[in-house]
Structure prediction request, 117 residues.
Amino acid sequence: MNPKASRTIGVLAVSAFLVGTSMAIPVVSVAQETQSVPVTKKEQRRADRQLSKDVRRALEAQHIDTGNVLITAQRGVITLHGTVPDPGQIAKADEVTKDVPGVQSVKTYLTPYINGR
Prediction:
């Protein structure tokens, strides 16, 4: 057998071994859910609405003005859009939202009021 063919067979054997072993490694999710996962679109929408309400309650409990804040949830991802009266409330809103059970991540698009707007 010539050296080039031997080398090609060796590379193929190692490649096959690596592919086979990589497929055998189990995938473990990062976050284990304790609640049941909604399976229908209707259940998912209901869960998203409830999570949005929970976030709003948590923000209001920490005296963050949510009157001009739109809170949306999509599969645990919370998005905050709007304005707040104090720039310090932006970081606080982000931190409070992260602590709400069920929140996976937060996207914050809040700005402070400018001249009362």
The chain has three helices and three strands. The domain at 40-117 is CATH 3.30.1340.30 (Histidine-containing Protein; Chain: A;). Confidence is low (pLDDT under 50) at residues 11-34. The two ends are 81 Å apart (CA to CA).
